[in-house]
## 1
Amino acid sequence: MKEIERKFLVKGEFKSFAYQVIPILQGYLSSLPERTVRVRLYGERAYLTIKGISDAKGVSRFEWEKEISPEEARELMKICEPGVIDKSRYLIRVDAHLYEVDEFHGDNTGLILAEIELLSENEVFVKPEWLGEEVTGNPCYYNSFLVKCPYTKWMDK
Amino acid sequence: MKEIERKFLVKGEFKSFAYQVIPILQGYLSSLPERTVRVRLYGERAYLTIKGISDAKGVSRFEWEKEISPEEARELMKICEPGVIDKSRYLIRVDAHLYEVDEFHGDNTGLILAEIELLSENEVFVKPEWLGEEVTGNPCYYNSFLVKCPYTKWMDK
């Protein structure tokens, strides 16, 4: 499966538009962009996800995912790379699309990212007013980079 | 699950003792010993396996495994680290135990390794006469190392 995603910073109040909020904890068995292996606790559920490298535009990326038990996820997290991503995901519908807005905690406090998944690279979608600058394909905003280089340690913000 | 394994070189004729031979192809999404993520085609089946680091003696190691489809394995192999392990596994019963004897091909031709899985670290087992020197815990014989540093390139053999 290829996923087509676009990613944006968030510049305004968005929380009141959410119909659900999900706590997420995730660690990496491999944080290399060429072969990312992620363990994620997503609310009451858990997943193992493997992603390949993005294409040149950073929009389309090979993705493989299997649901695992939360106990398995917790066991696997023990052997993950140091640093775990802790965030709250707000689900917001805007017209026909779903925005996933991640508010980061811990070492990434202050960072809020919105992501939208599209069926094709040319698909039209509505940008709500709280949506900020697009950062699709910018590796600094990959969660796998934020593990090693968290937002609160960035110099140039 | 913790696995307790001991690993040996093979010094004599062993093939006639095998009751089954299975072709194996395996690649690594992460070959770090702290968090190995392996994709394996095993005969007609396929598995994703994650292993943690060994204890000090190199005998006991955290292991997690899920069966996946051969098609998924082939997709995942495309994004694995360069180099794939190609070997034939001979299954040999010796008294109550199973020896898995791997004859390597490709860049690891010439290398033959036997492995036995035990229920406890002190379990007694029979060593058949074709069994050579023990190499348990020697990282040079990890498959994840053989990907990067194959046997035919070793200087000191």
Note: The mean pLDDT of chain A is 91.
## 2
Amino acid sequence: MKIWLLGMHGVVATTAMVGAKALEKSIVDSNGLVSELPEFDGIEKIAPPEFDFSGHEIRWINEDAYDAALKHWNLNKHYDYEILKGVKDDLKEIIPKKGTALNCGPGVESLGELSAFEKEGYTLREIVDILRDDISEFVKNDGVVINVASTEPVVNFSKDYHDTLEGFETMLDDNITDHANASMLYAYAALKEGIPYGNFTPSVGSSIPALKELAIKNRVPHAGNDGKTGETLVKTTIAPMFLYRNMTVEGWMSYNILGDDDGKVLAHAENKESKVISKDSVLEKTYGYSPYSICEIRMFPSLVDNKIAFDFVHFRGFLGSKMKFYFIWDGIDAILAAPLILDIARFLYTAKKRGEYGVIREMGFFFKSPMDTDIVNTHRQFEILKEWYKNLGRPKGLPKKGILTLGT
Amino acid sequence: MKIWLLGMHGVVATTAMVGAKALEKSIVDSNGLVSELPEFDGIEKIAPPEFDFSGHEIRWINEDAYDAALKHWNLNKHYDYEILKGVKDDLKEIIPKKGTALNCGPGVESLGELSAFEKEGYTLREIVDILRDDISEFVKNDGVVINVASTEPVVNFSKDYHDTLEGFETMLDDNITDHANASMLYAYAALKEGIPYGNFTPSVGSSIPALKELAIKNRVPHAGNDGKTGETLVKTTIAPMFLYRNMTVEGWMSYNILGDDDGKVLAHAENKESKVISKDSVLEKTYGYSPYSICEIRMFPSLVDNKIAFDFVHFRGFLGSKMKFYFIWDGIDAILAAPLILDIARFLYTAKKRGEYGVIREMGFFFKSPMDTDIVNTHRQFEILKEWYKNLGRPKGLPKKGILTLGT
Amino acid sequence: MKIWLLGMHGVVATTAMVGAKALEKSIVDSNGLVSELPEFDGIEKIAPPEFDFSGHEIRWINEDAYDAALKHWNLNKHYDYEILKGVKDDLKEIIPKKGTALNCGPGVESLGELSAFEKEGYTLREIVDILRDDISEFVKNDGVVINVASTEPVVNFSKDYHDTLEGFETMLDDNITDHANASMLYAYAALKEGIPYGNFTPSVGSSIPALKELAIKNRVPHAGNDGKTGETLVKTTIAPMFLYRNMTVEGWMSYNILGDDDGKVLAHAENKESKVISKDSVLEKTYGYSPYSICEIRMFPSLVDNKIAFDFVHFRGFLGSKMKFYFIWDGIDAILAAPLILDIARFLYTAKKRGEYGVIREMGFFFKSPMDTDIVNTHRQFEILKEWYKNLGRPKGLPKKGILTLGT
Amino acid sequence: MKIWLLGMHGVVATTAMVGAKALEKSIVDSNGLVSELPEFDGIEKIAPPEFDFSGHEIRWINEDAYDAALKHWNLNKHYDYEILKGVKDDLKEIIPKKGTALNCGPGVESLGELSAFEKEGYTLREIVDILRDDISEFVKNDGVVINVASTEPVVNFSKDYHDTLEGFETMLDDNITDHANASMLYAYAALKEGIPYGNFTPSVGSSIPALKELAIKNRVPHAGNDGKTGETLVKTTIAPMFLYRNMTVEGWMSYNILGDDDGKVLAHAENKESKVISKDSVLEKTYGYSPYSICEIRMFPSLVDNKIAFDFVHFRGFLGSKMKFYFIWDGIDAILAAPLILDIARFLYTAKKRGEYGVIREMGFFFKSPMDTDIVNTHRQFEILKEWYKNLGRPKGLPKKGILTLGT
């Protein structure tokens, strides 16, 4: 299958490409790939673990994926150099297309000089047409689009332009740039072309009503938002424990430090806001009440792509006595995120082949802020994913095999 | 309902009694009580949260429960003194019966001079008869027996005496003391009287075939072993996360320190062994393979009943890259354990009223080493408990409401 | 000796009073008191550990010290209730005088309705006259003044009014309230009366040139600023280690959470700024270079006076390899701070008796931002304190016994 | 200068050789080298940072230092591969001589088949003669010997053979192998040849009276024992803080995990014992009393040479209130140890050139169990090292510049 990556030269995208190619060549095993678990046996028949990549970029657009991967590797050394060497030839052939960074905020602007259509005077409609052509020419109805570009600022929501597909297309035609941003345009382009779209970032992507409408209309599956890779993964795994034991969480501190481009972008308040909202809402969704919560992300340059999270939970047990729980997560962001890109691609592709469309809520397992569901408990999400997979493609008349239902 | 506590003067038992009485008087709320969650609505009609207590002891047997509770409070100050004051009159009336500490190992012997029948020359059969009389006279078919006595050494299993009820009774009649220990005798006494038995400790209790046979024969429910209160609770909550993401656990270190009587008893290698086996097996049960594992408990006197666990997980993700996860659990053992005593009592009592008997595997949620099941994932255990409760008492002919099944 | 406390009803002040009285009555031992170390033998002859207390307040000014101590105890339970009971009579007699909260910022205003002279239309000169009368009447040349009031915003420095004593007094006379704040007025009052002044807070206190001039002129010793009690104590103890081993600190994260009044005041950006500057400068003073640094304080209500610090040090060793060090400090702020109040009082009092005056730089051991010295290494500070004490009162002609010198 | 390494193919020795050569070629900077601090200016004139290496080994004795370094690098990747490539030619030329592993215990035996003289029937005297020849031929009075071999079991002390040089030589002549072990024989060989000896391990080395006598007689400086690189470095830096503040340490837990050869050797109780004694005594030396202490080292294979220490300090402050301090040290053993090999070599060499001999107590800064002194406080040790260096070679008649004295 084909994977079109938005932000193709980023550390997550390049690590995913390195990994996919290394897997094909048996340089590495399938460790880290959810879709390779025995629970998902059979997926290899629909979506074999063989991928062709391309994508849009706004940086280093004349360089190939190997050049970009090497830059990230030199900073991070996040995997064995032998792996990179082993896939060099494959990555040398992958070259991105120029994209858009419309309204991506000061964080993205700070990454250096950007190559983006809006900087050259193109209108929204012109940009979208180019994006559609690029994507469809490569994917040819045999793949998906995944957004791994930097986090955008919280979108300035407009009832007129975001609520209906008609409004959205008016915005494009009238070139109303204030209410458009890059992730929307990409999502529109993908869905318009009938290609499944996965949003691995907290950017708005396909989550506005207008684009959900488009997905239904064109019968395309999409999923998001914001890959659940580190602290939030741990948090949503452990948080239910306090609930099950009827203990009250008095406060939860989550403090994250990281370096690299992601750290640079998130060091800008506007760009960070989307991320913090995405991370912070999981406690209320878990408990039904809102414990006192600190949820922070800060730049720490020397860590590069190594992300450390410090969590502290103050909880009250029997007789009102307070106790403490601390955790430290010392992870490597790209290593945690990259395999999920491949997983999301495979599941979305399988969904399409099996006739599913609209928001695939059952893929919430992969996301911090899963669309159209309040289930954030990692364990329930995994159960739901398994059952959904098991029932995929069953004739609609038959009863589903599972019993777990979505909803709050 | 009545709760007969084995080890009535221990810190867990006294805290449970304080809490139960304080709850009745609305001095405290139901925080920490699983059975008070909305998922278990209706249990108050079968097993209302009102409890009468008594029990067996081998220490301070002329003292009342208030005296014992005060001793523990003075060392630990683990809850507000006002709570203890508020239930003083209730606890003054609770006085234990003399029990047995047969083959309880050097750890228990180190607690001080013990008052136990075997020290006065009673035979096994004589001891068992007294225990049965004490329990049935108090409980009168309206309650349960819960074991919260100190951890015994690993039992010296005997095919002759432990495998069948007949063999077990021969052991009693022939006074074969080498193969008997206190927790077995208590479990036998309870089950023989038709009273549900819960084992909150890693001691053998009712888990030998002979006593399982007795429970089936007498149609009594029983459950155990070893209350899941601290590190193991966190471990079995978080461990599945690595599995869901197909990441390999290279090693897991669990290091526990605590003081108090529990620490004193576990400082003795023989007594500690049962506990470590109970804690250590959860990784293999979770993963199917055995990661390198360190699982240790050590005495740390100044902590008294404050138990701190240090865990470190070394895991391998995509492309073979290793990452680290640490947690520190700073809990108060009795605060964590005490409410579960009341929960287990209520669920066992409800099981009996609803006609369930034998090992109640669906209560595995409460235990480190749940009998007759390999499911240790806290989340699955909670789902199973909920479904079991929902279906309790449904006529056998009807299909069960849930789909989750037990087994590996 | 007498101790006049600015912020007499705060948790630190009341805990110091409880401790001092409990020590006199042998209810507690001298654990935590630096001045009771064998290194300071003989101090009991000059400044015996017997203290009378009074002070200024802006809250609860009609209540006595016991009432205030009990309020704090009920929230924090930071020591045994028996201790508080044992000194109740002593504290019932201690009642504060009304003080000033001039320009203390929104954090202090948020504590509730304040009783302060400036709110009743008094001029600076009138306020200062009252403060002087209150202090001198109580202290009678036999004690010290210690500032334990809440942290003020960073002062708006004025060359005209802060640089010389003459300018300062012009400010008072002309009632230039914009450039005055409470801690300066108190410091002026104390020094003007010839009474030693210790500043346990990061507020400006006596650290402006004008007041240093006054201290020299009136031959009064003073010391400050900002008691070194928790994270900064650990940080300045451990930070030199990396220097000694010639390892480079790439970054240091310090993240503090606490509740209580202190947390409330510091939740206001203006008030927090003083504190963060005070804490943050220690790395540069230690290393000569400025590692990347995060230094944050955040409110966490359920902790009350329990303060937790999370530190992470990323350091580079031989061959450029990076390594990690983490610490968690789980302390009780008032317990750490209170004994130092008594220590600072005794050392300042001893200094005065031995003829020392001006800034006592050798007392830097007690402070986060010691005045007039860049030595922040806790070990060197302790050596310096010991030597200074040993040489106190030696005739000026004789060579000093020690060799450690101050300065960068 | 020349450095003769005992255990030349180990991870510490090879990392030291790589680093020294990389430093000469300016591939790396002097980060991590104590002797390159400004405090030790001038040392480059006596002991320039240029080193020739050779040594004894019992493993892989036909391989060169590059082969050994590469093996360790492949397991650990503890520094940039470019560094290793840059010094390949230099290391290819370094080939060890066969040595001895006499009475090195089961831990060392477990490393694989050993090449050692005692296995071929040589007598003690014969072995010692060979060792002396090997060392003196290479070092030629222009270097030092450093022991970086694996930890030996605690020595079986013999008054007859260890107390005097005469007794020791009788042991050699009479071939009394029960009371001899490898580290003694090497230390004897070095000192007998007049070559300074540094013991970076907890093995006995030169610390028996007989060898101290030899060092005095031959006017050779020696120093040890057991390089202070990780947890003990942090511990002896932070422990004095509690003392300075007159707070009582109720208990201190130190739990270390590591993999690699060091972990393998220390997994054997006999070999671990020396290490634990060395680490554990620092608390008593710091406080004068012995807090409750846990001090453990455990194998954790996946960490390889990455060593993680978990420490917990329970301390009591003012009014008897208890507080908690935790630290996690995530270091790379060889990176921490290797530069100290070069430092110790340079200081010992300088000492010799300046006419110092016997135990150089002032080098205690580098060791966990410094010989002939109870000073373990890292800060005092650094001050002492600086002053000693400053006064090195001053005519004996003149007063020393410093004042810090050794002794308890």
Note: Residues 2-227+335-385 of chain B form a domain with the Rossmann fold fold (CATH 3.40.50.720).
